[in-house]
């Protein structure tokens, strides 16, 4: 999303470059009345940008006031500043410390020209999206590991019952569910819903309900 007010202040050539660059990278450009100059929604993450296409020290107060306002509204905010000359770069650095900016909060990205600046914007937005997706993948991987560990513990408990093997344990898991559900199941319910023998069903019921029997098995 590009701010309409930001767009109206820019040279048409820059807007054309941005539109072409976004299309080449499979982004859809929308013009909206938004507070930041750009907002990218990438991989489930919203990243906001302030894009100063030509640093002017006379506007420093307005720029940093806007930065302070937007950093409270957006978790991921970046400020890209075009400083084509050494003098402008020095002026920007002085203003940065003058207004007491905290390093990385938000991150400022000085660049030499507007085209480079916008390329940086797209790269940052893409990187944020990739990081978000990797977090999701990591979470899913961790959940799978936990599920395997839980199933392993489930099998260890049930196969500790004399005469109950992994096939029986899997049958109980699929037909009845959790350890808690199996512990509450009657012999008749187990026989109706699994292929276990009467003897095995009785052992399972005794294991969970007879204290003398419950305390005797050893976990493998």
Describe the structure.
The protein is an alpha/beta fold. The chain has two domains: 2-137, Rossmann fold (3-Layer(aba) Sandwich), CATH 3.40.50; 160-214, DNA polymerase, domain 1 (Orthogonal Bundle). It is built from ten helices and six strands, in the order βααβββαβαβαααααα. A four-stranded mixed β-sheet has the order 3-4-5-6, with helices on both faces. α3 (60-70) links the parallel β4 and β5 (77-82). α5 crosses α6 (166-175). It starts with a strand and ends in a 6-residue tail after the last helix. The mean pLDDT is 88. It comes from Setaria viridis. This is DisA/LigA helix-hairpin-helix motif domain-containing protein. One of its GO terms (biological process) is resolution of meiotic recombination intermediates. InterPro entries: PTD (IPR039172), RuvA_2-like (IPR010994).
Question: What would you call the shape?
Answer: rod-shaped
CATH architecture of the largest domain: 3-Layer(aba) Sandwich
Along the chain, the helix and strand elements come as EHHEEEHEHEHHHHHH
Largest sheet, spatial ordering of strands: 3-4-5-6
The CATH topology of the largest domain corresponds to Rossmann fold
Determine the strand fraction and express it as a percent band: 5-15%
Rg over CA atoms, rounded to whole Å, is 31 Å
Mean pLDDT: 88
Low-confidence residue ranges: none
Structural class: alpha/beta
What is the CATH class of the largest domain?
Answer: Alpha Beta
**Main sheet characteristics:** 4 strands, mixed
Helix content: 55-70%
Number of helices: 10
The tally of beta strands, per DSSP, is: 6
Amino- and carboxy-terminal Cα gap: 59 Å
